[in-house]
Amino acid sequence: MIPPTAPKTDAPSGEPPLVSIIVPIYNSVAYLAQALESALGQTHARLEVIAVDDGSSDSPESVIERFQDDPRLRFLRQENAGPHAARNHGVSLAGGDYIAFLDADDWWLPEKLSKQLARFEGREGLGVVYSGRDWCDAEGRLYDTDQAPLRIVRRDRPVAELLLGNVVPMSTAVVSRGVLDAVGPFDESLPCASDWDYWLRASLHCWFDCVDERLAVHRKWGGQITANRLAQAECGMEIQRRFLEANPGAVDAGVLRKAWSKRYARRGRVRGALGDRLAAGRDLAKALWLSPGNGGAMADFGRLVLGRLREPVAPVR
Q1: Which of 124, 174, 267, 291 is the most exposed place for a label (fewest CB within 10 A)?
Q2: How far apart are CA 91 and CA 94, in angstroms?
Q3: Quick one: three-class SS letters along 199-245?
Q4: Which InterPro entries match (predicted)?
């Protein structure tokens, strides 16, 4: 593993590091103020917020005007090109030693950055620190996520851990400048899961750490830009294929089989929920052939036979 280069820093001696917070905006004016308040209200006050409007039609300027007296906020506009193009635009203008990402419909707890930055102190090779998060609906009601424990990436095998699934929520990540420079921009050509693609590439350059607390809240609502479930599953398979072709030998054969088993199981679950039982059966059978211990695929195969295979929906609490 190649250790990251030292983070860029222009901070005077004794000054805390500067954190650049990138906020891509697209038709989320109803939630934007809460996101910006949570960013500007961090206990780590040495920060800049770069809000990039990705061609919204709902006038985010009306919200930005409320914060015009805070010099830490910068507002930019671009033609609609997708959230990762907006993130790349923001990163290109960021001056921070660390970069954090916050979606315009999510928000943070006040101590989020302080707790994450503390993890970087004196830890050579650490490039990404993420955290847990809560989920809420459009009205801000929290989902019951108690049954979903946070997965923590092991230092000695970040590539393998991330290949088995994206465990780094975008709005929780803080990334060192050195890693961003080494990895390069988000892939704007991907229709979805460009964040997972990015973390996979980053795992070749650094190790990851996690603050095992829910320091962010992710909102699920009808206006979000999401591909359909089948397209997402197939996009995940393509990202995995490209990464493994570009990095042969990155993981051992056992991890490789488990990773492909998860991909086939995911697509099979979606196909079954959409009513394509034959294709679902093929995918789930392939998942079990690759990894007979894939309990999720086995359970989904049973549900498929009984006609009860559905996509899970988190209950509201």
Answers
A1: 124
A2: 5
A3: HHHHCCCCEEEEEEEEEEEEECCCCCCCCCHHHHHHHHHHHHHHHHH
A4: Glyco_trans_2-like (IPR001173), Glycosyltransf_2 (IPR050834), Nucleotide-diphossugar_trans (IPR029044)
For each of the domains in the chain, give its residue range(s) and CATH number, in order of start.
19-219 (3.90.550.10), 229-306 (1.25.40)
* 317 residues of the chain, pLDDT tens digit each: 444 443 444 555 678 999 999 999 999 999 999 999 999 999 998 999 999 999 999 999 999 999 999 999 999 999 999 999 999 999 999 999 999 999 999 999 999 999 999 999 989 899 999 999 998 888 888 886 554 567 778 777 899 999 998 999 999 999 999 999 999 999 999 988 999 999 999 999 999 999 999 999 999 867 545 448 899 999 999 999 999 999 999 999 999 999 999 999 999 999 999 999 999 999 999 999 999 999 999 999 999 998 888 765 443 33
Buried b (16+ CB within 10 A) or exposed e, 34-50: bbbebbbebebebbbbb
With 0-12 / 13-18 / 19 or more C-beta atoms within 10 angstroms meaning exposed / middle / buried, residue 200 is buried
- Tell me which residue of 91, 93, 49 sits closest to 73, measured CA to CA: 49
Instruction: Calculate the CA dihedral of residues 37, 43, 44, 47 and round it to 10 degrees.
Output: 20
Closest to 128 measured CA to CA, from 93, 90, 178: 178
Residue with tokens 């994450």: 116
Name which of 212, 213, 216 is nearest 134 in CA terms: 216
* Residue 47, helix vs strand vs coil: strand
pTM of the model: 0.89
